[in-house]
Amino acid sequence: MRVLLATTNPIRLSFLMALLRDAGYAPVVLDGHVSAIEGGIGIFPRRLAVPEDQAVGARRLLAEAGESDGLA
C-alpha cells in the first residue's frame, strides 16, 4: 500500500475516496479506528492509501481534480 495523504477532515476524506473509487482505484483508509476511539475531536489524521501499482495514477487523478494539497 502507498499512502497518498493524511487528513483530519472526514468530509474531504470521503470525497477523495469516492473520487478514487469512481475512477476504478481501490482506496483504503488507514487509522480509521484510532480516529473513532479519539471521540471525533480530529486530533489523529486518517491516511488514504492505494495499492502500490495504483499510486502514480491515483496521485495524478487527485492533482487533476485540484486535490493536491497534502499529497505525500
Q: State the end-to-end CA separation.
A: 13 Å
Query: Could you tell me the radius of gyration in angstroms?
Result: 12 Å
Q: What's the rounded overall pLDDT mean?
A: 91
Number of helices: 3
DSSP strand content: 15-25%
For the biggest β-sheet, the strand order reads 1-3-2
SSE order: EHEHEH
Please identify the structural class as seen in this structure. Answer: alpha+beta
Largest sheet: number of strands, sense, barrel closure: 3 strands, antiparallel
- The total of beta strands comes to 3
Unreliable runs = none
Shape: globular
Approximately how much helix is present in the residues? 40-55%
How would you describe the overall organization of this protein?
The chain has three helices and three strands; from the N terminus they run E-H-E-H-E-H. The chain has helices at residues 10-22, 32-37, 55-64, and strands at residues 2-7, 28-30, 46-50. The protein is α+β, with helices and mostly antiparallel strands and 72 residues long. Strands 1-3-2 form a three-stranded antiparallel beta sheet.
Short description:
With 72 residues, this protein is an alpha+beta fold. It has helices at 10-22, 32-37, 55-64, and strands spanning 2-7, 28-30, 46-50.
